[in-house]
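User: For my dataset I need records formatted as: sequence, then structure tokens, nothing else. Please produce one.
Assistant:
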Amino acid sequence: MQFCINIKRYKMNQTAYLLVRLAIGASMFGHGLVRLPKLATFSQWMVGTFEKSMLPKIMVVPFSYGLPIAEFAIGLCLILGLFTKPAMIAGGIVMLILIFGTTLIENWEALPSQLIHIVFFAVLLQFLSDNSWAFDTLFFKN
């Protein structure tokens, strides 16, 4: 009886992990997807937003072009469950950079969303052993 309960709990953990991974993946993927077709416009907006910050334009421009690509790639990897651990670490790093930039321009409204994203990345990393419904399990068996 105990064995059966443990298997059910394990399956629930896997399902919960999948749902959270897909949710954060969809968020990242969607952010990148809508920005990629208008990359130059997005870059101009970001450069304008950081005009009065202490960050030099030479740092903002490359980041503004790389961010949508990173969001898209990270989101796609998480949706597929491919390179899940590196994708989550990369997502956390992207969020840390965004949090730093957000505080420099005092955009306090954007901060909660970024903090929530980084919490989800940390939780997913913590429970990575529950990542069983993923391409990682097919291609990278231990």
